[in-house]
Amino acid sequence: MTDPLHQELLALAQEAAHKAGALLRDGRPADLAVAATKSSPIDVVTEMDIAAEKLITDLISEQRPDDGFLGEEGASVTGTSGVRWVIDPLDGTVNYLYGLPTWSVSIAAELHGETVAGVVAVPMRGETFHAVLGGGAWATGAWEGERRLACRPAPPLEQALVSTGFNYVTEVRVHQAAVAQKLIPLLRDIRRGGSAAVDLCDVAAGRLDGFYERGLNPWDLGAGDLIAREAGALTGGRPGERPARDLAIAGTPGVFEPLQRLLEDFGAWHD
Question: Per residue in 249-258, pLDDT tens?
Fold first, then answer.
């Protein structure tokens, strides 16, 4: 039985993700433009990223005014309750800017530094993924009711379908391309979806055997990492470490460890 506080946090995250997803899906202007850039001129923020984060933080603050926030678009509040919300209001901004469907709203709730609830809404798929610590991972979609998620049985690595992402800083993506070039002959294939949160949920749902990426931030990982783990996947970074900016990996047991070893051997975590 899961903690009542965890369930309360999950319900609030679900409400916020649903409303932000609807805003992004239904409120996207035809002349959507770049509002700012982040790590490079091609790493963009739109007016909708900013509006969605404000919607989420305002809604949560109304119900839990003592909580902290860490958001991609600048939300940063320490809080006094021991709860911190880690928010990516629009993961996959470039996809969204171009009208591609693979983007998401990711909201995780941490309690004293541990992620205890997470929601990833993928409005253009009509799907929402969620988990609480110790309660399994679940999704709603075109099917009836909630579906419990479980990662795929592990194939041999050469039959594994693995997703990744590329950084918007040119020097980093050149190195990432070299790592991918080494990996491709050793796998079934590589995918590049454009939203790390969606990729992690697809590992949880059995749609991918593995995922790895360098350069992710806490808001990219928070909810999706919990959902993947609650579905039976293994997650980590470099050997013995948790997922981090240097490297984040998720995979079905049997794929995770050999993938991690290859990424370590190929130096996926550095320039």
Answer: 999 999 999 9
Helix (H, G, I), strand (E, B) or coil at 174: helix
139 bridge partner residues: 129, 147
- For residue 261, give the nearest of 221, 217, 210 by alpha carbon: 210
> Could you tell me the pLDDT band of residue 36, with boundaries at 50, 70 and 90?
low
The residue among 132, 98, 139, 97 whose CA lies nearest residue 118 is 132
Return the DSSP state at 239.
Answer: T
Q: Which of 195, 210, 234, 17 is nearest to 108 (CA)?
A: 17
Pairing relationship of beta strands 68-71 and 137-140 according to DSSP bridges: unpaired
Kindly state the average pLDDT of the residues 142-158.
95
Beta strand ranges found along 123-160 (DSSP E): 127-132, 137-140, 147-148
pLDDT recorded at residue 42: 54
CA 28 to chain centre: 21
In the sheet with 210-213, reading across from the earlier edge strand, the strands are 189-191, 161-164, 210-213, 248-251, 234-236
Q: Are strands 83-91 and 68-71 parallel, antiparallel or unpaired?
A: parallel
- Reported pTM: 0.95
Q: Which tokens sit at 172?
A: 């980093």
